[in-house]
Amino acid sequence: MSPVFPLQPLLDLSQMRLDQAARELGELIAGEQEATKRLALLLQYREEYHARFMAAAASGIGQSEWSNYSRFLARIDDAIVPAAQSVEATRQRTLAGQQDWMGKHGKVRAFNTLADRHRARAAGQEARGEQKTSDEHGARRHADNGTGQNLFQLFSTAIPAV
Q1: Are 97 and 28 in contact (CB under 8 A)?
Q2: What angle do CA 20, 25, 28 make, to 5 degrees?
Q3: What is the C-alpha R_g of the chain?
Q4: What are the chain's domains?
Q5: pLDDT 10s digit of each residue in the chain, 162 long?
Q6: Which of 25, 106, 107, 162 has the greatest CB tally within 10 Å of its CB?
Q7: pTM of the prediction?
Q8: At what angle do helices 63-158 and 8-59 cross, to 10 degrees?
């Protein structure tokens, strides 16, 4: 049986942290997508409302309608600014989350490499130990066979046949 990898607790901890970073990155990506959808919806709504305003203006509208359209477009524009800032902020958080995940992934890979080397070294030592045991066993068997034959020959020549 190969000895336990001494850094296994650190490998396990690093793997746990990598898993947590992956979950957080998933949440960040989902948040970025949601913010992007909200911004796209606001931009689409502004475009549609602006098209209605232009169509109404082309057919002739009064001062109060013109003012209403203008104020509403200004409110939409006011909502677009923080939505765009939110998208940028979520992109930055997602980028930071990706970098965090990559750093943690690198640590796990490094610990896995060390663990693989440890297992390979232990397997090599075990194989060498088994080979040594096998060689010793074979040498003993060979020595026993050789000694037994030598003793037999020695006794058969030293003792006269009766």
Answers
A1: yes
A2: 130
A3: 40
A4: 8-156 (1.10.287.1700)
A5: 567 889 999 999 999 999 999 999 999 999 999 999 999 999 999 999 999 999 999 998 899 999 999 999 999 999 999 999 999 999 999 999 999 999 999 999 999 999 999 999 998 888 888 888 888 888 788 777 655 455 455 555 555 555
A6: 25
A7: 0.70
A8: 160
